Amino acid sequence: MTEEVHGEEGHSPVAEAPPRPIPLEFEAHYITHQEAYHEYALFYLRTNDAAERAVHRVFLEILRHWDALLTESDLQQQTWAIMRRTVIAEALLNFRNQLTAMDTGNGLYTALGSLSPRQFDVIVLRYIAKYDAKHIGWYMGITPSTVDYHCRKARERLSPIWHRASNKEITK
């Protein structure tokens, strides 16, 4: 049966079918907003390559949800929220990767880097960005009580390391 779908020279016409056409409205949205999205991403991510990757992911996400987004009364706000969440997630991932490369001698940065993605994000957003559980929940798409749960579990995992670090400071 698979032999029947191959065209000349063994190429599959199904694999070579053109992708679904991009809606004209989406193309206009891209042209209108790409530069601002790139500047925003560049500010947070600090390198052109990282900004381009993030903005590319943003527009793929917007395109994936385009039909639903068109039904929203606040298309600009909805697409900006997608852009912002994507850039922040990329910045958190970069920060996480930098942490694991740092060595303080007490293992704290390595331990932070080994937290689950949700626990890591909650710890960074709560203790570094100083967001409350409601704001973190909105960003991550979870309830404030789930934010508190992930924060509590992360602190439990980090607790032995914090205690070791505190004891080192006390004995000095």
UniProtKB/TrEMBL annotation:
Keywords (A to Z) from UniProt: DNA-binding, Sigma factor, Transcription, Transcription regulation
**Carries keyword GTP-binding?**
no
**Lineage top rank: taxon:** Bacteria
Q: What residue stretches are annotated with the RNA polymerase sigma factor 70 region 4 type domain?
A: 108-158
Bias category Basic and acidic residues: which stretches?
Answer: 1-11
The reply on keyword Phosphoprotein is: no
Region ranges (Disordered): 1-20
InterPro entries from the UniProt entry: RNA_pol_sigma-70-like (IPR039425), RNA_pol_sigma70_r4_t2 (IPR013249), RNA_pol_sigma_r3/r4-like (IPR013324), WH-like_DNA-bd_sf (IPR036388)
* One Pfam match: Sigma70_r4_2
Q: Which family does it belong to?
A: Belongs to the sigma-70 factor family. ECF subfamily.
Q: Which PANTHER family match?
A: RNA POLYMERASE ECF-TYPE SIGMA FACTO (PTHR43133), RNA POLYMERASE SIGMA FACTOR HI_1459-RELATED (PTHR43133:SF8)
Q: What is this protein called?
A: RNA polymerase sigma factor
- Protein's organism: Streptomyces amakusaensis
